[in-house]
Amino acid sequence: MTPRDASDDSRWSDLERPPLNSAALRRGLVREGGLWRRVEVVERTGSTNTDLVDLATSGKAEEGTVLVAEEQTAGRGRLDRDWTAPPRSGLFFSVLLNPYEVPVTRWGWLPLLTGVAVATGLSRAAGVDTALKWPNDVLVTVGGEERKTGGILAERAGEAGVVIGVGINVTLRADELPVPQAASLALAGAAGTDRDPLLRAMLRSLEEWYGRWRAAVGDPLVSELQETYAAGCATLGKMVRAELPGDRAITGEAVAIDGDGRLVLATEEGVQEPVGAGDIVHLRPA
After folding, report:
1. Which Pfam families match (predicted)?
2. Of 72, 37, 265, which Cα lies nearest the Cα of 166?
3. For a disulfide at 152, which of 136, 163, 170, 188, Cβ 3.0-4.6 Å?
4. Adjacent-strand bridge partners of 199
5. Where does the pLDDT of residue 2 fall: very low under 50, low under 70, confident under 90, or very high at 90 and above?
6. Can you spell out the DSSP letters for 77-112?
7. Residue 213 φ then ψ, to 5°
8. CA separation, residue 81 to residues 30, 46, 76 (Å)
9. Which pTM was predicted?
10. Positive or negative, the Cα torsion across 232, 90, 82, 9?
C-alpha cells in the first residue's frame, strides 16, 4: 500500500478525473458519536480489503475505519475474480465493522445491507436508478439493458470484525469496460459523477442502515432490511440459474429472500430451494 495522501498528487493524468479530497472527506464524515472514525485515501494499492483486513487483525484499525484507493492493482470480486479499472475512474473502498451485539448467524446480511446502502446513496447523489442482483452486484440500465456497475465483497477480520469492500465504476468509458456486460454511472446517464459527494452519500447511507440493523440486533424484519432489499432486487421474479460449489446448478424462478438472506428458487419440480452461496445467472425469457 502506498501510504501517501492521494489529494497531494499533482500529476493529474486525466483532468476529467480529479483526485479525491481526503481532508474534505474527513470533515464531512468523521464526527463525534458517528460510525466513521478514520478516513484514509491512498493513491494506489493492491486491494483495500486485503490492506484493511491486515490492519484490523494486527490491531491497527478500529471499527469505522474507511480505506479508499484511487487505483487498485489487485482488486477482488466474489469467487476471487479480478476487479481493475483506470485510476480515479471509480470508487474503491473498504470499511471495518464490528457488530458485536449481533449474533454471528446474522452477519450474512451485511453484504446485502451494504448493497441497499450503496444503491440508496447512489440514487440520491448520482440521480440514477439502481438495482441489486443477489447477492452483491449493483446494476444500472444502459441502452435498455441491466448491467453491472459495482460489486461488494465481505471478509472476516479476526474474531469480531468484518471488512466490506465496495467497487463502483463511476466515469468508466465504453472503451474502458473490462467486459461488455459492465457499465458505469456515466454510461447510465448519471446526473452527477463527482466522486466526493458520491462517496459521502454511500457512507452516510451505510451508517444509517448499519445503525438500524444493529439496533434491531440484526433482525432483518424489525430493521426493514429484508423488505427493502427485496424491493430493490432485480433478481426476484426472474428465471435464474444458480451455479453452486461442487459443479452443481439449480434452475428456477427467484421468488423470495428468506430470513437468512438466502435467495429462494422455485424449481420446475415444485420445490422451493434456498441458495446461500453461488453465482447467479439471470436467464433471458425463451
Report:
1. BPL_C (PF02237), BPL_LplA_LipB (PF03099)
2. 72
3. 136
4. none
5. very low
6. -GGG-EE---TTSEEEEEEEE--TTS-GGGGGGHHH
7. -65, -40
8. 32, 14, 6
9. 0.92
10. negative
Sheet holding 248-257, edge to edge: 272-275, 263-267, 248-257, 239-244, 279-282
Q: Among 115, 45, 42, 97, which Cα is nearest to 75's?
A: 45
Helix (H, G, I), strand (E, B) or coil at 76: strand
List all residues 6 or more positions away from 162 whose beta carbon is below 8 Å from its beta carbon: 96, 97, 98, 99, 107, 110, 154, 155, 156
Q: In the structure, what pLDDT confidence band is assigned to residue 80 with cuts at 50, 70 and 90?
A: low
Give the three-class secondary structure for 57: helix
Please say whether the beta carbons of 134 and 278 come within 8 A.
Answer: no
pLDDT tier, 278 (very low <50, low <70, confident <90, very high otherwise): confident
Q: What are phi and psi of 128, to 5 degrees?
A: -130, 140
- Tally the residues of the chain: 286
The span from the CA of 111 to the CA of 94, in Å, is 12
Which of 178-205 are b and which e, b meaning 16 or more Cβ less than 10 Å from the residue's Cβ? Answer: eeeebbbbbbbebebbebbebbbbbbbb
